[in-house]
Amino acid sequence: MKKLLLIVISAMAMLAADVAGEWKATAEGPNGTMQRTLSLKVEGSKLTGETVSSLVGKSMIEDGKIDGDSFSFTITAKFQDNEMKIPYKGKVTGKDSMTLTAEVSGNAIEWKATRVK
């Protein structure tokens, strides 16, 4: 039984997207191009790490999950002395590319990211 459980866990880990590592992302905002760096770590189906953006600085990744080639997480960002939770949903679109969508005040921001080699 333990061997079967180990095999199932290993198979699930192999199906999870390879998002671990450093990523550079860009998105178009009302004032031009925004940039974000993501440093991601994966343990099974759990996603952790941090992100740094040109607009809100450094934020820790919270509640990160991976399911196949899709993933999600939340950050707490401070903007003009106000803290807000920003949920992200993403999908790996290639070995070294992914897309992310952030929901900010009811608006979706589309990010395109490439792996830093």
Helices and strands in order:
Elements: H1 2-15, E1 21-29, E2 32-43, E3 46-53, E4 57-67, E5 70-79, E6 82-94, E7 97-104, E8 107-115
Antiparallel strand pairs: 1-2, 1-8, 2-3, 3-4, 4-5, 5-6, 6-7, 7-8
Briefly say what this structure is:
The chain has 117 residues and is mainly β. It has one helix at 2-15, and strands at residues 21-29, 32-43, 46-53, 57-67, 70-79, 82-94, 97-104, 107-115.
What would you report as the Rg, rounded to the nearest angstrom?
15 Å
Shape: globular
Which strand order does the major sheet show? Answer: 1-2-3-4-5-6-7-8
- Helix percent reads 10-25%
CATH fold-level name: Lipocalin
Helix run count = 1
- Uncertain runs are 4-15
Biggest β-sheet description? 8 strands, antiparallel, barrel
Provide the residue-averaged pLDDT. 87
**How far do the termini sit from each other?**
40 Å
CATH class descriptor name: Mainly Beta
CATH architecture descriptor name: Beta Barrel
Structural class: mainly beta
Strand content: over 45%
What number of structural domains do the residues give? Answer: 1
